[in-house]
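cron nightly-structures :: item 1 of 1
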Amino acid sequence: MKSTRAVAHSNIALVKYWGKREAVPGQPDDLNLPAVGSLSFTLDRLRSDTLVAPDPRDSFILNGEHHADAPKIFRHLDRIWRATGRAAPRPTTRVSSTNFLPTAAGLASSASGFAALTLAAAAAYGLDLPNKDLSVLARRGSGSAARSLWGGFVRQHRGGDGGDGCYAEPLFPQDHWDLRLLIVHTARGPKSISSTEGMQRCRATSPYYQPWLDTSEADLAAAEAAIAARDLSALGAVMERSCFKMHACMLASAPPILYWNGRTLDVIRAVWAAREAGLPGFVTSDAGPHVKVLTLADHAEPLAAQLRDVPGVFEVDVVAAGPDAHVEILA
């Protein structure tokens, strides 16, 4: 076993991933198959750095703190080790990860974290796979992690119910379009309901869940065409539609799921008002209270200045498109 380091960047779904499929009889129960495809924008600066190394016992350190109980991490290491085909037990492993973004706050720290862990562990264990297959492994750790293997714009395919065709692939590179994503922070700390719990509740109880599934492919096609044409108005329209359909599905669950706070709504209204006044920006929001605003690079700072003035906003980050993930062998 080698020591390795991987860096993967967070991503924001412009056409949303929300919902998981039930396990198919006869298939592994940890395939973690999304109910719909998704299309994302990889972010610069917001990333996870992960070190994987041999150690006398399994250990996991996140942001400098030891976590004695980290079952998802070590199940993922077991999964990657099994993919090598070796019969021997998995080597005991130390994982040390630093998130350069808030953890469990709706900013996709699990996406960058599991993408980096997948790349680092695969290299440490000597598993040589094409990126398409690595994206499948990353998805089994976190649904959105498959998209964090690449920079720019990335599409995750829904694929078949047995997992065939359910992988991510790059659509357009980091330098395809000079956009900025404004991340408007409206709260501190982790969200109250995990994404996994929220998805399960929506699937089980929301009357809007099936319409959400039925309309996803049309949104994906429209978004991909808009990105190819560098048409912000067209992309913004489908992005907002996808976002609000997802949150409507959450609100119709029993009991309702509401990740937003009052400041979230104030920011959305402020973006719409700025757009009416000639400063284009389009909103999206994931399973958390923060608002993300997509705009052209030239409009980013003026729009960010307006949003910083919304009462209760903690900060506004201006983030460009991010690069591909990468891994290096340390020893």
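cron nightly-structures :: done
The CA atoms of residues 72 and 275 lie 42 Å apart.
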